Amino acid sequence: MVKIAPSLLSADFSRLKEELAEVEAAGADWIHVDVMDGHFVPNLTIGPLVVEAIRPHTRLPLDVHLMIEEPDRYIPAFAKSGADWITVHQEACPHLHRSVSLIAEQGVKAGVAINPATPVSLLEPILPYVDLVLVMTVNPGFGGQKLIPTALKKVEEVRRRLEDLGRTDVEIEVDGGIHPGNAGEAAALGTTVLVAGSAVFGAPDRGEAIAAIRSAAEA
Ligand code: DX5
Ligand code: ZN
């Protein structure tokens, strides 16, 4: 069964507690938290203090997506704040194995993300060490963008490479421009976690929005 992870980036930041309760009741599986530093991506969002503040208000796993340079400086703080998953970008980590190991040392599940223009082959050396691969289907920085079809297709290669390693337990997440119209293709290619920001928080009824994505993914 595919998991659905609403991205808080498109939530009402003045009512995060209520927004969390609403998507949890609406059947969300994880909460996706987008952390941006204004350097790796052209936008600034939230830090560990906000993760710590929302942690008591949901039982769902917090899936923290670090779109930041020098993530090693902040990984311990995000782990302490209550992140269940921490994902770093391949493009931001010159010592990727060190960053992934640092996440694992905190007792947190480790993920690696790639931008739309980054080939899957660059992940080959790190695949034995990660719990999640995040395939970005938009250029990161903003919610509400249109999915890039060639980026989505990379999910199939990620799945094949993981299968070749016998690592069928690794989550494959897609992030960016996901809606009921493309969730089916994403799932068919091998996606196990669908991030959806505007398609969930932009909808008047979050329950209906999550159900529509889920039924498209499971069709
Ligand atoms: C993009 C973020 C995404 C974003 C997804 O930089 O990593 O998680 O919030 O939003 P939608 O689903 O609206 O594309
Ligand atoms: Zn994200």
TrEMBL record:
<dbReference type="GO" id="GO:0019323">
    <property type="term" value="P:pentose catabolic process"/>
</dbReference>
<dbReference type="InterPro" id="IPR011060">
    <property type="entry name" value="RibuloseP-bd_barrel"/>
</dbReference>
<dbReference type="GO" id="GO:0046872">
    <property type="term" value="F:metal ion binding"/>
</dbReference>
<keyword id="KW-0862">Zinc</keyword>
<comment type="function">
    <text>Catalyzes the reversible epimerization of D-ribulose 5-phosphate to D-xylulose 5-phosphate.</text>
</comment>
<dbReference type="GO" id="GO:0004750">
    <property type="term" value="F:D-ribulose-phosphate 3-epimerase activity"/>
</dbReference>
<feature type="binding site">
    <location>
        <position position="34"/>
    </location>
    <ligand>
        <name>a divalent metal cation</name>
    </ligand>
</feature>
<dbReference type="InterPro" id="IPR013785">
    <property type="entry name" value="Aldolase_TIM"/>
</dbReference>
<keyword id="KW-0479">Metal-binding</keyword>
<dbReference type="InterPro" id="IPR026019">
    <property type="entry name" value="Ribul_P_3_epim"/>
</dbReference>
<dbReference type="InterPro" id="IPR000056">
    <property type="entry name" value="Ribul_P_3_epim-like"/>
</dbReference>
<comment type="pathway">
    <text>Carbohydrate degradation.</text>
</comment>
<feature type="binding site">
    <location>
        <position position="175"/>
    </location>
    <ligand>
        <name>a divalent metal cation</name>
    </ligand>
</feature>
<keyword id="KW-0170">Cobalt</keyword>
<keyword id="KW-0464">Manganese</keyword>
<protein>
    <recommendedName>
        <fullName>Ribulose-phosphate 3-epimerase</fullName>
        <ecNumber>5.1.3.1</ecNumber>
    </recommendedName>
</protein>
<dbReference type="GO" id="GO:0006098">
    <property type="term" value="P:pentose-phosphate shunt"/>
</dbReference>
<dbReference type="GO" id="GO:0005737">
    <property type="term" value="C:cytoplasm"/>
</dbReference>
<comment type="similarity">
    <text>Belongs to the ribulose-phosphate 3-epimerase family.</text>
</comment>
<feature type="binding site">
    <location>
        <begin position="141"/>
        <end position="144"/>
    </location>
    <ligand>
        <name>substrate</name>
    </ligand>
</feature>
<feature type="binding site">
    <location>
        <position position="177"/>
    </location>
    <ligand>
        <name>substrate</name>
    </ligand>
</feature>
<feature type="active site" description="Proton acceptor">
    <location>
        <position position="34"/>
    </location>
</feature>
<feature type="active site" description="Proton donor">
    <location>
        <position position="175"/>
    </location>
</feature>
<feature type="binding site">
    <location>
        <position position="7"/>
    </location>
    <ligand>
        <name>substrate</name>
    </ligand>
</feature>
<keyword id="KW-0413">Isomerase</keyword>
<feature type="binding site">
    <location>
        <position position="65"/>
    </location>
    <ligand>
        <name>a divalent metal cation</name>
    </ligand>
</feature>
<feature type="binding site">
    <location>
        <position position="32"/>
    </location>
    <ligand>
        <name>a divalent metal cation</name>
    </ligand>
</feature>
<feature type="binding site">
    <location>
        <position position="65"/>
    </location>
    <ligand>
        <name>substrate</name>
    </ligand>
</feature>
<keyword id="KW-0119">Carbohydrate metabolism</keyword>
<feature type="binding site">
    <location>
        <begin position="197"/>
        <end position="198"/>
    </location>
    <ligand>
        <name>substrate</name>
    </ligand>
</feature>
<dbReference type="Pfam" id="PF00834">
    <property type="entry name" value="Ribul_P_3_epim"/>
</dbReference>
<feature type="binding site">
    <location>
        <begin position="175"/>
        <end position="177"/>
    </location>
    <ligand>
        <name>substrate</name>
    </ligand>
</feature>
